Amino acid sequence: MHDIRAIRENPEIFDAALARRGLAPMSSDILSLDEERRAAIHAAETAQAAQNAASKQVGAAKAKGDEAEFERLRALVAEKKAEVAAMQARAGALDTELRDKLLLIPNNPLDEVPQGADEADNVEVRRWGTPRELGFTAKEHYQLPAVGAAMDFETAAKLSGARFVVLKGGVARVHRALAQFMLDLHTDEHGLIENITPVLVRSETMLGTGQLPKFAEDSYETTNGWWLIPTAEVTLTNYVAGETVDEAALPMRMCGHTNCFRSEAGSAGKDTAGMLRQHQFEKVEMVTICRPEDAIAEHERMTKCAETVLERLNLPYRRIVLCTGDMGFGAQKTYDLEVWLPGQNTYREISSVSTCGTFQARRMNGRYKPAAGGKPEFVATLNGSGLAVGRCLIAVLENGQEEDGSVTLPAALHPYLGGKTRLVDGKLV
């Protein structure tokens, strides 16, 4: 959420940042509402002071035995009390209106983020690895003979509907191995602290990371008001909601493996084949909470953590910096990692790593206490996939496919598969 004081002091900078997002100027409307809100607060405070003064006079009149003056002042206090209540209600309503407006405005992009309208304007930063020359026509993951019936969309559709999958046998084992491998790498080598968090959260938790109120249709709400998380970013980032941590505790670097749930609203007809875009999937999420001045360095570090997963699995990928028009609501800057999928003959997103500055911290009131003293300051938050497990499974299957229909599995997974190295007709061998 934006700092209203920053908008007051530099409205043109605020509007310029919105323009980079393709949005119309908003500072005039926001500042007009802010001025009305502040005037209402001042009026309520003035009326409260008058009520307090009259209350003291009531006591003095009573002590003097002046019954007429006592009754007059008591009536005045009652009148002032009603007036104060009305003014406070008005000020509160304006404060809520301003907050609701600010909650719907996206984060300001960093100056270094490329200007653009959509994904066509994203900029490739670098590539790693060279796609294999297969020597035969590549198949997509769900077409592979090695997968066979171990990737079962029909049973999933019977159980739950479209965009679900049942994994069985060797394919399920590889999927589990990928999550374990990622967690071990991040905890043992990257210094992240593993967490197991709830997947059901309160509305204020979703609001803190920016999923609410604007993107409610993208998530699932239960009948009692809980929300199914779209990623562990929601739970891990909210660890500091309403908290003031010591500077010595920063940076907090965490990861968590969870089921994730997305309605995929607005994506009808997009990526419907196979398990590329599902309503339920698993991710190993990374979250960092740090001082704002450390956020850029942490962004690079976190992105490298995700890239290392792909490199250890020998999966070719490229790093993309998203343009202003394609960047997420809460992000200041985002790197997408796109993995090579030979079945589609293209690179597809497998991780998105973003720095959010203090945007989320302001929404959830997460602060830190500077070691040198002074008032608490807002933390910075970052999040990224490290990685999306299902999409990583797709990449492992497609990149490891052989002409005889089997799949050769990456060496990094062999210890997690009991030494098995290949997938044949849904079984590990």
Folded structure, characterized:
The chain has helices spanning 4-9, 11-20, 27-64, 67-103, 153-159, 169-188, 203-209, 233-237, 295-312, 359-364, 389-399, and strands spanning 123-128, 151-152, 166-167, 193-195, 200-201, 220-221, 227-228, 244-246, 252-261, 280-290, 317-321, 333-341, 346-355, 367-369, 377-378, 380-388, 407-408, 422-424, 427-428. The mean pLDDT is 95. It is α+β, with helices and mostly antiparallel strands and 429 residues long. α3 (27-64) packs antiparallel against α4 (67-103). A hairpin with a 2-residue loop joins β18 and β19 (427-428). Strands 1-11-12-13-16-10-9-4 form an eight-stranded mixed beta sheet. It has a three-stranded antiparallel beta sheet with strand order 5-7-6. It is built from eleven helices and 19 strands.
Summarize, please:
With 429 residues, this protein is an alpha+beta fold.
Name the helicity range: 25-40%
Q: What Rg do the Cα atoms give?
A: 28 Å
Task: Write down the overall geometry.
Answer: elongated
Structural class: alpha+beta
Overall pLDDT confidence: 95
Oligomer: single chain
Keywords:
429 residues, alpha+beta, eight-stranded mixed sheet, 21% strand
Secondary-structure map:
Layout: H1 4-9, H2 11-20, H3 27-64, H4 67-103, E1 123-128, E2 151-152, H5 153-159, E3 166-167, H6 169-188, E4 193-195, E5 200-201, H7 203-209, E6 220-221, E7 227-228, H8 233-237, E8 244-246, E9 252-261, E10 280-290, H9 295-312, E11 317-321, E12 333-341, E13 346-355, H10 359-364, E14 367-369, E15 377-378, E16 380-388, H11 389-399, E17 407-408, E18 422-424, E19 427-428
Parallel strand pairs: 4-9, 8-14
Antiparallel strand pairs: 1-11, 2-3, 5-7, 6-7, 9-10, 10-16, 11-12, 12-13, 13-16, 14-15, 17-18, 18-19
